[in-house]
Every structure is written in C-alpha cells, then in structure tokens.
C-alpha cells in the first residue's frame, strides 16, 4: 500500500449507527487507527467544525456513513436533501488530496419510487430520483464521479446481527427463534448484503487503492451479490438453518411490486473474499442466538 494510505487516521462518520459501528469495529480488528465521528464529536453541518476535524488530525481515509434518510410524512423532508449535500460538501472541501474517501451511496440513486431491476453502475442518470433522499444520493454520486480520490459504494440492503429489529432479515430470524410463522409482504427480488462483507470490501480498497495510479479499481460499485433472491427465498434460507422449521406465509397486496436489486458484476470481478448471502445469514443467526 502506498504511503499516502498507510498512515493516518481513518475517519468513520455516522459511527453510532449500525453500519458505522460495524466498520469501526472491523477496521480496528485489522489494527488500523480508526477515529469514530458521531454528532457529539463533530457537527458535520458546521463548516468550521469539519475544518477543525481535518486540521487537528492526520487523516488517510474517510468512510462516510452519516446521512439523513427522511420519511414521506416528515414535514421537513426536503431538509434531507440540503443536509446530506451540505455534509458531503463540507467533507470534500477539507479532504486532503491524498485522502481516500468512501461515500456509502444507495440504490435509491436509481429512483426508489420505481422498479429497480438489475441496474448497472453505468445506468446512473438514466432517470432522476423523485424523493429528496434519493436525489441527494444521486447528486453526491455524480460529484464523486468527478473526483480522483473518491469511491461510491452503492448499498441496497445491509444486514447483520446489530441491525434494527424491524428490518426484514432480523425480524424473520426472531420469528424463527420464537417458532412463529415468517410473513413476507409483497414478495419481490431484493438485494441483501452481509455487513462483514461490506467491511471486507472497504478494507480491500484501503489496502489496494492508488488513486490515479490504479485505474483498475472501480470508483463506482454496486454492493450486491450476483445471485438474486426473492424475499420468500431469503425466508426459506433462514428457515433451513433450523431443525424446527416454521411456516413461511406470503401476502401479496400490490400488483405492481417494486423490485430493488442491482447488477453485481463489477464487485464480483474484484478479488475480495466475501462470505456471501447464505453464510452471512448463518453467521447472523448464530450471533443473534447468543
């Protein structure tokens, strides 16, 4: 690894969240100097606070997990767009030229209000997101593409033992352990990616990235596996890990079910050791049982 990325702290924003906290833990296990940044540590909406963050610390990489997602019923939904853009611009303004920057993007960049089926990285811009969150991620992805030291890792669904209780996989595992039926509402194809594999991907880039010296590493990557599964199939995989299986009920209420998955070809071409969906689910169940 080049000297530019071998020394200095790795800042992880949104470090109190499920993804940020997991990345901090993983990179520390790799003996890297990680600096978790939460709202209490630095106000990313404040330009001077972000400036101090970089001037007071020697930074080699930034993993940007912090984001406002917003809800449709939120009266301040359009603040989501403004705040996400402002945070990104503040970080970019003071980012050293030798510093590697990861933006954790979203499949919503392809417009989450419509069906997203097997979209490739090059499809970005084929349609404009119609909600503030997706539009903010879309604009940031375009800005990342214009840089030389930034990478957009486009997430669809990330799962793991520490994810929220109301997420599909976590909820399905609890139903299995409680010996209750797993209910699938509106079966469709969705991408699920194991949190440890996301951490492994970020670590791989930190080890191998050379900005313009290594054009072989893509700077826009759909974080998803090549094999695709429906929600019902995911539930069946979860069910298969138990000797006492439970019923899987499918309740379809919508005719136009919106799929949510991307093309994983670029990621699969990289030499990143990944566990994959099935092993990730098995590990997640094991951890939740503890």
Q: Topology of this protein?
A:
Blueprint: H1 3-6, E1 9-13, H2 18-29, E2 34-37, H3 47-55, E3 59-64, H4 77-94, E4 100-106, E5 116-119, H5 132-145, E6 150-155, E7 158-159, H6 168-177, E8 182-185, E9 193-194, H7 195-208, E10 220-223, H8 231-240, E11 248-251, E12 260-262, H9 265-268, H10 277-289
Parallel strand pairs: 1-2, 1-3, 3-4, 4-6, 5-12, 6-10, 7-9, 8-11
Helix pairs in contact: 2-7, 3-4, 4-5, 6-8, 6-10
Tell me about this structure.
The chain is an alpha/beta fold and 290 residues long. 37% of the residues lie in helices and 18% in strands. Strands 2-1-3-4-6-10 form a 6-stranded parallel sheet, sandwiched between helices. A two-stranded parallel sheet has the order 5-12. α6 packs parallel to α8 (231-240). The protein starts with a helix and ends with a helix.
Q: What is the straight-line distance between the termini?
A: 37 Å
- Shape descriptor: globular
Strand order of the largest sheet: 2-1-3-4-6-10
Query: Structural class of the helices, strands and pairings?
Result: alpha/beta
What would you report as the Rg, rounded to the nearest angstrom? 19 Å
β-sheet strand percentage: 15-25%
Instruction: Give the proportion of residues in helices.
Output: 25-40%
Annotation field: number of helices: 10
Strands, count: 12
Major beta sheet summary: 6 strands, parallel
Order of helices and strands: HEHEHEHEEHEEHEEHEHEEHH
Mean pLDDT: 91
Q: Runs with pLDDT <50, length 5+?
A: 1-5
């Amino acid at each position: 690894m080049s000297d530019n990325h071998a020394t200095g702290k790795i800042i992880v924003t949104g470090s109190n969240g499920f993804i940020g906290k997991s990345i901090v833990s993983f990179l520390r296990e790799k003996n890297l100097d990680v600096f978790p940044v939460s709202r209490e540590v630095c106000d990313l909406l404040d330009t001077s606070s972000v400036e101090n963050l970089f001037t007071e610390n020697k930074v080699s990489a930034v993993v940007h997990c912090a984001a406002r997602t917003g809800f449709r019923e939120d009266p301040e939904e359009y603040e989501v767009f403004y705040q996400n853009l402002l945070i990104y611009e503040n970080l970019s303004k003071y980012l050293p030229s030798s510093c590697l920057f990861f933006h954790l993007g979203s499949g919503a960049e392809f417009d989450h209000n419509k069906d997203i089926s097997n979209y490739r990285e090059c499809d970005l811009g084929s349609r404009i997101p119609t909600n503030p969150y997706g539009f903010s991620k879309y604009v940031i992805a375009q800005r990342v593409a214009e840089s030389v030291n930034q990478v957009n890792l486009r997430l669809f669904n990330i799962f793991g033992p520490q994810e929220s209780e109301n997420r599909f996989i976590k909820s399905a595992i609890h139903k299995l352990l409680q010996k209750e039926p797993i209910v699938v509402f509106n079966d469709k194809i969705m991408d699920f990616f194991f949190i440890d594999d996301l951490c492994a991907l970020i670590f791989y880039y930190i080890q191998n990235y050379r900005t313009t010296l290594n054009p072989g590493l893509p700077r826009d990557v759909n974080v998803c596996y090549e094999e695709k599964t429906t929600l019902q199939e995911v539930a069946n995989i979860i069910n298969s890990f138990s000797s006492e299986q439970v019923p899987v009920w499918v309740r379809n209420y919508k005719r136009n079910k919106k799929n949510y998955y991307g093309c994983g070809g670029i990621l699969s071409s990289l030499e990143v050791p990944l566990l994959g969906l099935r092993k990730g689910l098995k590990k997640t169940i094991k951890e939740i049982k503890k």
